[in-house]
Fold this sequence. Notes:
It is a single chain. The chain folds into three domains: 5-56, Urease, subunit C, domain 1 (Roll), CATH 2.30.40.10; 70-194, Roll (Diaminopimelate Epimerase, Chain A, domain 1); 202-516, Alpha-Beta Barrel (TIM Barrel). The chain is built from 19 helices and 24 strands. The strands form four sheets. The protein has an eight-stranded parallel beta sheet with strand order 8-15-16-17-18-19-20-21. The protein has a six-stranded mixed beta sheet with strand order 3-2-7-22-23-24, with no helix packed on it. Helix 2 packs across helix 7 (202-217), helix 10 (314-326) crosses helix 11 and helix 13 (389-397) crosses helix 17 (439-448). The longest helix has 17 residues, at 338-354. The two termini are 31 Å apart. The mean pLDDT is 95.
Amino acid sequence: xxxxxxxxxxxxxxxxxxxxxxxxxxxxxxxxxxxxxxxxxxxxxxxxxxxxxxxxxxxxxxxxxxxxxxxxxxxxxxxxxxxxxxxxxxxxxxxxxxxxxxxxxxxxxxxxxxxxxxxxxxxxxxxxxxxxxxxxxxxxxxxxxxxxxxxxxxxxxxxxxxxxxxxxxxxxxxxxxxxxxxxxxxxxxxxxxxxxxxxxxxxxxxxxxxxxxxxxxxxxxxxxxxxxxxxxxxxxxxxxxxxxxxxxxxxxxxxxxxxxxxxxxxxxxxxxxxxxxxxxxxxxxxxxxxxxxxxxxxxxxxxxxxxxxxxxxxxxxxxxxxxxxxxxxxxxxxxxxxxxxxxxxxxxxxxxxxxxxxxxxxxxxxxxxxxxxxxxxxxxxxxxxxxxxxxxxxxxxxxxxxxxxxxxxxxxxxxxxxxxxxxxxxxxxxxxxxxxxxxxxxxxxxxxxxxxxxxxxxxxxxxxxxxxxxxxxxxxxxxxxxxxxxxxxxxxxxxxxxxxxxxxxxxxxxxxxxxxxxxxxxxxxx
Length: 526
């Protein structure tokens, strides 16, 4: 038997403990058929075998992003890019140029500005935006995501005036002298305008999601856990699949609101295959730390009047979890605060006691504010913890976690090393577009976190989050997540070795090639 494709002269990082490294590998159809030395692989080279000399580049199992909002990312890619803007005057020029090329009244959405990089050293305001684009509603997001500036037309369409109250967990900024709105909206207040923006058409969603998928595989990602918001978004995935516009494997995580539509979902998805299937349902127990809506057992240190917000009673959550468990569906439970995590674990404990299920692979999303007792219960239940390392870093750098929680609670905020040492399986994701897509940047964040550095992971531990651990979470560890004979040929070729690169430079490693089922879906080779 000759291989269809062989990769030689490489640094193969297998994530297989029985053979941690290799020099080359061979692929037949969609499977890895041999992992070994150049000499061992050369025996599988025939006249029709394609040979790629890696020239020392590293090969890792294809990355798996276990938490990504693809539809939102696709929309984000169509936005006005303001990341390189260095002044408000330049921002206005880009906005004015963009407005001249689209119809009046069409929304302009932008992202990436940072007042610290502006020559004026101030936030842009609605007057700046009005001057550049008086005829189009405008919303421009700060690089941190939960702050934006809007113009007067956007405020008018949203029905927001200087008499509008700031929502819970958000701020409508006003001029301290005049009481007039400045156009700056923070955290939950951004939703007041965002919800006014018309939804794109299905064709626009398909086109933007297709663009997002191309960007995703260019980051070395071969599988995603796609967080969807509606049944319509699942139809978009189905359309992409039927049009051969899905260059990677898609595991769908549907909202719990669709649990009652399971029959129609199954009909929509069919039986599913290895490339596109329903993974489970996401249940939100609480909100976020950034908005102080994550549910805590004790008040926020910087706002003693609140302990966050629970979205279900314990009884309601128990019922929802039991329904999914009885139907043998995957469970993805969003719980950030310790009170919410306790509720989630209580619900899981009840269903497993009533109807035991071994190897359930249920997971808690974020599991941010932990303590020793919660960690012990997580371990006992065999729960998976889904973490987005860049988000964890943002909690400290952007949202002032220590000031909000106090030092003792912040000490066990995303305690990655503690969880690993307890034998708890952690999986990695990006939460893109809220944070950068790159798994390598996520790994770098996990390895270099400056806050409570005793919780830093090793490179190998961080790499496992995005490969074999994530494959385990979707019950696919027998067929992917490591480079072994018989497994799917889902691979990422990297310009450098993350294990030997400076830890602060891991995110600078380039993806040279991505393969899914042995086919090259992205390539950036000289």
